[in-house]
Backbone:
């Protein structure tokens, strides 16, 4: 699969998150599926850029899973998201970001 453009990455994220809250690892899996290994670093940078820009613009809301099981808004941290992408093979839904549009 060819590397997705920034616009394609944004469209996928907005479409998925408009339906429901999605874990960061799930969004990354959707965007990175089938991308050749040598293209992953560039895709990761694009993904981080898109999520950062959407969050800053208020089009995407970063959320966290609270102790009572509710997913609530939280402060976005680009470096934390980058670490989550690196650990997406063994995600932790209780500590990883969730994203939604509402």
Residues:
């Amino acid at each position: 699969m060819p590397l997705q453009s920034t616009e394609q990455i944004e469209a996928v994220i907005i479409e998925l998150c408009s339906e429901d809250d999605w874990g960061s690892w799930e969004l990354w899996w959707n965007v990175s599926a089938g991308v050749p290994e040598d293209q992953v670093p560039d895709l990761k940078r694009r993904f981080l850029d898109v999520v950062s820009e959407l969050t800053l613009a208020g089009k995407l809301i970063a959320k966290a899973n609270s102790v009572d099981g509710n997913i609530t808004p939280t402060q976005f941290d680009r470096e934390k998201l980058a670490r989550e992408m690196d650990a997406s093979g063994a995600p932790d839904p209780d500590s990883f970001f969730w994203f939604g549009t509402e």
Q: What stands out?
A: The helical segments are 6-19, 24-32, 40-56, 78-86. The two ends are 31 Å apart (CA to CA). Strands lie at 22-23, 61-65, 71-73, 98-100.
